[in-house]
Amino acid sequence: MRSHFNLDVCLTDYLSSIFLTFINILMKFTNTGIIAALFLFSIFLTERATAQNKSIALSSINPHYFTYKGKPSLLITSAEHYGSVLNLDFDYAKYLNELSAKGLNLTRVFTGAYVEPAGSFSISANTLAPAANRFICPWKRSTITGYQLGGNKFDLSQWDEAYFSRLKDFLSQAKKRGIIVELTFFCPFYEDSQWKISPMNHINNINNLGTMDRESVYTLKPTNNLLPVQTALVKKIISELRDYPNLIYEICNEPYFGGVTLEWQHQVASVIKDAEKGFNNPHLISQNIANNSKKIENPNPAVSVFNFHYAIPAAVKENYALDKVIGDNETGFQGTADEAYRTQAWLFIMAGGGLYNNLDYSFATGKEDGSYSYPSSQPGGGNAELRRQLGYLKRFVESFKFIHMHPDLSFVKEKSSAETQIQGLAEPGKQYGLYLYGKEKKEIELDLPVGTYHQAWLNTLTGVLKKDAPFKHNGGRIQLKVPTYTKEIALRIIRKN
Fold first, then answer.
1. Is the pLDDT of residue 410 over 90?
2. CA 253 from chain center: how many Å?
3. Helix or strand or coil: residue 68?
4. In this structure, are 46 and 77 located in the same domain?
5. Quick check: is 468 in a domain?
6. Confidence grade of residue 7 (pLDDT, cut at 50, 70, 90)
7. 349, 378, 403: which is the final residue of a domain?
8. pLDDT higher for 7 or 349?
9. 186 within a domain of the structure (yes/no)
10. Do 237 and 136 have their domain in common?
11. Residue 262 and residue 265: Cα distance in Å, rounded?
């Protein structure tokens, strides 16, 4: 049997139906039963409303994943280059519509403490590089001309309420579409050209702040006279966004460049935690660790999401014992073809990752639907078809009761090799998921306990799900035939008894 893959598991709705059935039984008896049923129903509605408004959090069942609106959740997307809010020409409603239409549920956004000049990193139509006089940030413009990107300089002691209105509307629009926003407070200045246009640079503000070199901006050095400004920015944003549940705060993008110190990152994390102490629904904090992979030593207890860029499965394996979400929240520099980023997503998520964000360059000002045709020199890829394929990945994992699954390849008798990479998730004895990438196989040998199993093979490029007939197994090793495929395929096995 073949079908287009479209299966969601909703534990909350299942439990709701059981609860409502129980209430109906109560109401068939006495008046007392009716009163009791109404009382229980009011409690149920209150609890459900509370779950709907609660901030995204780590799952208490399996903290390698999230919980949001009372449901287990993982975050997968292919998102624009972080300029949705700071670029006044960018129509973020149209952009968010495209993410939602493809079944994706995450975006990442910079605050405006960092902005890029046109041409940075050879990016064409860079959303993080607004046109002249079209840049907006948290700080209000002064009456003095001279900002490097056009218009007046900034007053770092005053807030621009138009910016916060735009930021809050962005969060609201994302919330309506079920999209989580990872808001990144700061970003290092990779080159002098970026520091030269930052509002924090003394040449761009009227406060005579930011007179240091770019590699001292995110440190606790005595020469960093911007620390009070940075602290005030974090507190202001937290105050403005306290009631948005679809929000994760990231300390700093790629702090392993530009002189950013670990001590400064810990300081920002402390500011976030202290500012949210009285909140009913505090937000998660994420920290960007490294490119590719790195074992995290002495993790900050305030951090719940540890992000990598251009991540490999080893990033999950090395840090899985932390019992926190491990994310890959930026891709790129592997050409413009879809395969590199699609397979990176599958290998990472099927290794136990809980967050994936492909950096998608097909989103541009005027092309917020993701239809921009970028040149071959672009440092990454992205397009509607890749977004659709990442949606297949998300729905594949969600077709399991994935909150009970962990990285596990013990049931696979053939391991990864130079020819074929294999990643898998399992709840032993109940459900198994596999992803194969590389040399095509005609059979795969598994070791499963006795039982009756349903198996289905997913074409990860087309979303077509081939459901094979259920099979009974007496336990031990079994050879499964693999459908014809090209380079990659995914397998779902669910035990029925």
1. yes
2. 14
3. strand
4. no
5. yes
6. very low
7. 403
8. 349
9. yes
10. yes
11. 5
10 — pLDDT class (breaks 50, 70, 90): very low
- CATH code: domain of residue 363: 3.20.20.80
Structural domain count of the chain: 3
Containing domain of residue 27, as a range? 10-53
Regarding whether 331 and 293 lie in a shared domain, the answer is: yes
pLDDT band for position 1 (cuts 50, 70, 90): very low
3-state secondary structure the chain: CEEECCCCCCHHHHHHHHHHHHHHHHHCCCHHHHHHHHHHHHHHHHHHHHHHHCCCEECCCCCCCEEECCEEECEEEEECCCCCCCECCCCHHHHHHHHHHCCCCEEEEECCCCCCCCCHHHCCCCCCCCCCCCECCCEEEEEEECCCCCCEEEEEEEECHHHHHHHHHHHHHHHHCCCEEEEEEECCCCCHHHHCCCCCCHHHECCCCCCCCHHHCCCCCCCCCCHHHHHHHHHHHHHHCCCCCCEEEEEECCCCCCCCCHHHHHHHHHHHHHHCCCCCCCCEEEEEEEECCCCCCCCCCCCCEEEEECCCHHHHHHHHHHCCEEEEEECCCCCCCHHHHHHHHHHHHCCCCCEEEEECCCCECCECCCCCCCCCCCCCCCCHHHHHHHHHHHHHHHCCCHHHCEECCCCECCCCCCCEEEEEEEECCCEEEEEEEECCCCEEEEEECCEEEEEEEECCCCCEEEECCCEEECCEEEEEECCCCCCEEEEEEEECC
Whether 311 and 435 map to the same domain: the answer is no
- Are residue 103 and residue 206 in the same domain, yes or no? yes
**Is 82 part of a structural domain of the chain?**
yes
Helix 92-101 vs helix 384-398: angle between axes, to the nearest 10 degrees? 50
**Domain identity same for 323 and 175:** yes
Pair (211, 302) in one structural domain: yes
Instruction: Write out pLDDT tens, residues 151-176.
Output: 999 999 999 999 999 999 999 999 99
pLDDT of residue 19: 56
Extract the tokens encoding 289: 């660790």
Three-state DSSP class for 44? helix
Boundary residue ending a domain (385, 403, 421): 403
Domain with residue 479: its CATH number is: 2.60.40
Q: What's the mean per-residue pLDDT of the chain? A: 93
Q: CB under 8 Å to 37, separation ≥6 — which residues?
A: 23, 24, 26, 27
Q: Would 1 be classed as within a structural domain? A: no
Q: State the sign of the Cα–Cα–Cα–Cα dihedral 172, 176, 177, 181.
A: positive
Do 325 and 303 fall into the same domain? yes
Residue 33's pLDDT is 60
Length of the chain: 497
Q: Look up the pTM and report it.
A: 0.91
